Amino acid sequence: MNKTYPQRFFDGIPSDSRKLFSEERDCCKECTAWLRCTRRCVCVSAVALFVLGIIAAIIGLAVTFGIPPRTPVNRFCVTSNNRTGFLCDDRESCIPAHQVCNRIGECANGEDEQETLCSDLPNSLPGYLIFRCSYPSYWIYADKRCNGFNDCGDCSDEMGTLAGCPPCGPQWWSCTPVFYEYCTCVPRSFCRDGVQHCTSWSDEYICMR
Fold first, then answer.
1. For a tag on the chain, would you pick the N or C end, based on fewer CB atoms within 10 A?
2. What letter does residue 177 receive in the DSSP assignment?
3. What does the pLDDT look like over 143-194, one tens digit per residue?
4. Are 101 and 129 contained in the same domain?
């Protein structure tokens, strides 16, 4: 025969219930200390709501004050003489490509000399700032391409499809120069100066300043 044992009461509350309430109070104390507790504890929900509230407040402030997300800065620009340049933080100053990482701060905040930009030349530079010569280990700054001078050393920056240079401008005379400093054009100031610069001598007999 099963016996039924009467429950003991304290102040009108069963002793088992008192034990349960005591465990829940202990659980809530643990919750306030950011410790794990049972599902019966209401403190877990309160702490979770508190954390979510903080996150929501941060997002709300960002939206309210118009804080933009961080995006990569596009610093490509064109200089006044139509050459490739580097855009400074002021979004107005455009310095020539060859002035980047020259150990002289051309931009007001020195962003053209940042370590992340200059630590491993030319690999650390954006692709638009450099020109690869026909020799893989040789490179020049992009604004040196098609400037009339043999900066690569093999004229690959002035001749052929790799460079894609336009015809000589009005200040130049088109020919094949004798001196390796030039490739397909010589300055018109060399015309009729008594010194041969073109293999055909056209700079001395045909060219006019």
1. N
2. B
3. 999 999 999 999 999 998 889 999 999 999 999 999 989 999 999 999 999 9
4. yes
pLDDT in tens, 55-82: 666 666 555 665 554 455 789 999 999 9
Q: 202 in a domain, yes or no? A: no
The verdict on residue 117 lying in a domain is yes
Burial state string for 19-35 with b = 16 or more CB within 10 A and e = fewer than 16: eeeeebeebbebbeeee
Q: Is the pTM here over 0.70, yes or no?
A: no
Which structure tokens are listed for 26?
Answer: 């202990």
Q: Where are the alpha helices (DSSP H) in 77-146?
A: 115-118
Tokens 């008192």 sit on residue: 18
Question: In this structure, are 108 and 130 located in the same domain?
Answer: yes
Q: Note whether residue 105 is domain-resident.
A: yes
Within this chain, do residues 57 and 76 fall inside the same structural domain, yes or no? Answer: no
Residue bearing tokens 């020049």: 140
**Minimal CA–CA distance to 110: which of 123, 95, 125, 130?**
95
User: Domain limits at 36?
Assistant: 14-64
- Mean pLDDT over the full length of the chain: 80
Q: With contact defined as beta carbons under 8 Å apart, do 108 and 93 qualify?
A: yes
Encode pLDDT of 23-35 as tens digits: 445 544 554 444 4
Query: How far, in Å, CA of 96 to CA of 117, rounded?
Result: 15
Which amino acid is located at 168 in the chain?
C
Same domain for 59 and 111? no
| Phi, psi angle pair for 96, to nearest 5° | -60, 150
What domain count does the chain have?
A: 2
